[in-house]
Design goal:
Elements: H1 2-11, H2 23-55, H3 59-70, H4 74-85, H5 90-115, H6 119-127, H7 132-143, H8 145-162, H9 166-169, H10 175-184, H11 187-215, H12 218-238
Helix pairs in contact: 1-11, 2-5, 2-8, 3-5, 4-5, 5-7, 5-8, 6-7, 8-11, 10-11
Length: 243
């Protein structure tokens, strides 16, 4: 408990506003790496995912690549790209690694969202004269937004945790404090930085959870509620009555 209180005191210490890397700057850098990686990954993965979901072509390849990318060790990928691009391009190497890690969940969310649209809805759109592009833009993409947001949510949480590794290759982000704390054996600093990373992840997760609910059409939410009602009644009926 003393270590936890020491970590809280470390976070709110006035000394955190000074030094080579003030805490607000570290938080901002951590978020900047996260958002930059997710945005670049989204620009690559969303069009590819929509195309795969709409045409049905390349799904097996996308699934295989996504699975393989998830198995790549994050730390090894960051160090490999730093060695390949050179120490003078640490920012580009780190960002590239984070982008590669963010692509698989976004790609999966994009094509899964399109595939989840009911074929009857797609056939109805085609029957009124919509072109394939209009079907994708006006029907499949909007209805697939909840799963796409889920993919973005997963990618953001993965990246915000992985950006910590940037502290090993440069004085960036909250990972710098963890690496420095390990070197000087300051456990309150290590725990304080880790707590801030957890807070960032929880806040971002909450934002995407709200966004996912906002983009879900009312009819879909109502359908889920109706589908859940019988299950809730069965659980209530199966629950033992209090003696």
């Amino acid at each position: 408990m003393n270590l936890f209180s020491d970590a809280i005191a470390w976070i709110f210490s006035p000394a955190r506003l000074e030094g080579s890397l003030p805490l607000p700057e570290a938080v901002w850098t951590h978020l900047a790496f996260t958002f930059a990686a997710v945005v670049v990954a989204a620009l690559i993965a969303i069009p590819a995912g929509w195309l795969i979901g709409h045409t049905g072509r390349g799904r097996e390849i996308a699934v295989a690549l996504s699975g393989a990318a998830r198995a790549v060790p994050s730390f090894g990928l960051v160090l490999l790209l730093v060695l390949l691009l050179g120490v003078t391009h640490k920012v580009a190497a780190s960002t590239t690694a984070f982008v590669l890690l963010a692509i698989p969940p976004i790609l999966a969310g994009a094509y899964a969202g399109v595939e989840a649209v009911s074929p009857r809805v797609v056939d109805g759109a085609r029957s009124v004269g919509m072109t394939p592009w209009q079907v994708l833009r006006k029907v499949e993409a909007p209805l697939g937004l909840p799963l796409l947001i889920g993919g973005l949510r997963s990618a953001t949480l993965q990246v915000v945790a992985t950006v910590t590794l940037a502290g090993y290759v440069g004085n960036w982000g909250l990972g710098f404090y963890i690496v420095q704390g390990i070197q000087i054996r300051d456990f309150s600093q290590i725990l304080g930085a880790a707590l801030l990373i957890v807070v960032l992840a929880v806040v971002l997760d909450a934002v995407f959870a709200v966004l996912e609910r906002v983009v879900t059409p009312r009819g879909v939410r109502a359908g889920r509620s109706r589908d859940d009602a019988p299950r809730r009644r069965r659980r209530t009926a199966a629950a033992p009555s209090p003696s």
